Amino acid sequence: MKIEENTPLAKFTNYKIGGPAKYFLRARNKKEIKEGIKWAESKKLKVFILGGGTNLLISDRGFNGLVLKVDIKNLNANGLRVRSGAGVEIKKLINFAIKNRLSGLEWAGGLPGTLGGAIRGNAGAFRGEIKDNIESVRSFNVKTLKARICLGRHCDFSYRNSFFKKHDNEEIILNAVLKLKKGDPKMIRATTQDKINFRKNRHPLEYPNSGSVFKNVDIKRVPKKTLEKFNHLIKTDPFPVLPTAVLISEAGLKGKRSGGAMISTKHPNFIVNVNNAKAKDILALIKLAKATIKRKFGVIIEEEVQIIR
After folding, report:
1. Which CATH architecture has domain 206-308?
2. Beta-ladder partners of 77
3. Among residues 59, 212, 258, 264, which one is catalytic?
4. Which of 63, 161, 229, 303 is the most buried (most CB within 10 A)?
5. Is 304 a catalytic residue?
6. pLDDT tens-place string over residues 80-132
7. Integer Cα distance of 98 and 189 in angstroms
8. Domain edges within the chain
9. If we measure between CA atoms, which residue out of 76, 66, 286, 95 comes closest to residue 175?
10. Is 35 a catalytic residue?
């Protein structure tokens, strides 16, 4: 176990934003995670579990405790089942599935981040969600210092949420078993590439970003007057939602700036780092978007990005 000190966190996030971690540990297995947790407890330090850093905004002050990066990267297949470490990148997982003629992850084409992060936030796109692929998840409990297995149906998955997200920094995802189905590699690759191309064309990937900053809005939470106005723009994701990007655009917020951050003109649910932005710049635009949309449309939007203050 190697504990680093004053490690810059910006390099571990897609936003390229964030101050230093007082202590930092890259854990490659359960043993190192356990040792790291016990070490932090002995020092009475707070612990933050870091995955791929793709949907994360870290304070300019950094984190005054131990940042534990889960870097478990085992990957193997047995028939229709794939066992993957939490630190495996989604891109690598998809390519592995294609090589093994396994279908079911095409919806995740172009999705950034790691499997652990995808499970935690029940990542989804194009009417697919990671919960649909999960057979079981093995996790490590910070309090008991023991591992356990949770069947997919017991992981309390919901829209961009899970048991693991509800118990952040208490239950650490180690690995998971995904159940897929047989498919034609050419068809799988082509469908996956379609999703990748869609993201390239619609998302501002030329700038550091955290993906969608806000969750889309369940139509049950949209006032009738607003729903009638935007009824033709409702989409299934995986249930009927009003895209937050529509509300941000209609509120006239595209292109709004704060310091080095900007609400994207290409996809307004992205707040991008256009010029060495600070976390405070991103937070200012998040605050602006929430207040403006509530005032204009009576809709309360919720962050999808995880914020570490």
Report:
1. Alpha-Beta Complex (3.90)
2. 82
3. 212
4. 63
5. yes
6. 999 999 999 999 999 999 999 999 999 999 999 999 999 999 999 998 999 99
7. 7
8. 3-70, 75-188, 206-308
9. 76
10. no
